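Dear support,

Our group has been running a series of protein-ligand predictions, and this particular one with uridine-5'-diphosphate-glucuronic acid is the one our PI (initials K.S.) wants archived with full inputs and outputs. We had some confusion internally about which version of the output was final, so please treat the block below as the authoritative record. The input we submitted was:
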Amino acid sequence: MVSSACFAELGHSVDIIEIDERKVEAINSGKPPIYEKGLEELLSKHVGSNLRAITGYDNVRNTDLSFICVGTPSGPDGSADLSMVETASRSIGESLKERVGYHVVVVKSTVPPGTTQNLVMSTVLMNSGGIREKLGFAMNPEFLREGLAVHDFMHPDRIVIGSSEAKARDLVESAYNGLNAPIVRVGLSAAEMTKYASNALLATKISFSNEIGNICKKMCIDVYEVMRGVGMDHRISPHFLNAGAGFGGSCFPKDVMAMIRLGEMLGEDPVLLKSVIEVNERQPLRMVELLENRIGSLFGKEIAVLGLAFKNDTDDVRDSRAVPVIKELKSKGARIRAYDPLAASNMRGIIPDIEYCESAAGALKKADACLIMTEWPEFGQLDEEFDLMRSRVIIEGRNILLCEDAEGICW
Ligand code: UGA
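Confirmed final output from the archive:
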């Protein structure tokens, strides 16, 4: 969605192929089917001129490039499920049977190394009648953060293009004309691996900070003070060193798991990546342990949970660290009142049987304790609202509060 709107902004004529008719309708009436800062503005600017959504693949044959941007969710064993990539490749291939000029099929989905070469290329060629000279293949991973995806597309640190041949690479490169970023030209599998390695390293930085933070907490050291000094080393960088309740979202947990499975399939034992996941699974439950240390048994207690999205500026609750926390609180007999500026309705789909409130103050009223699970800036302003609680027991998972009596998970 974001890539197509941004390619339209760069001046291209873009078709979004989407099988869900409700989403097609929404996009064509200028309404983004997901929340993403700046996206609605791009839709209102380009829908009706150079951007549209359609349900069929027929028009692929009239285009120069097709980007496969489908999901690659975790399969039952944690490996990437590539069925949607295969279906899209088949449909693109069928449409390309009648293509006259050169066309490049670009994989943007996060896929295990070898997928573009082995699955996409062969599926497209088989279904298109196989005129190899008319087809190029490329792998062009995205490094967009949810909530900041439009900004990240327009201001990339780098554009990685893996390709089967220079002609294909040059065409993909030209699609990004107008952006100011270094181009990293590599082979297909190296591009695929670059995406996994980037996400795995970012996730590792977070779990590393959490582990150091857990040790700091025992010694009454503020891990944020520590990481300020650590991050100033240019070899380390200050980013993604924020300790807290751990990483969630649709990417880090899934991609690190996929890398672990890939390594295992190749006979490796990815001990570091397994530990990254293990730290991340334990981390949110520490919030509940800290809470029990403060107020004892949670049975019958009223707990306010502020923040349900996996991070701020999104309504996405996939793998949100709030989920295991709420489940643990429920299993201990607590009564939960939750609030999130955007994500409550999505969380209702996963956990329907807790109370959802319209405001932080509503959730806090007469609560025995409060847990902060998401780094929403608006939570930073909360202070007097905590006086509505029975007592100000505040456990923080994101280091966003300014009030001094909140207890941090690792600080
Ligand atoms: C992540 C990557 O940052 C993007 O570069 C990548 O393109 C994307 O995955 C993807 O693969 O599509 P995203 O999942 O949107 O982006 O979210 P992040 O901003 O990376 O945050 C992920 C999680 O880590 C959140 O739960 C956040 O709260 C947590 N986090 C982040 C920390 O706990 N500490 C930090 O220092 C940073």
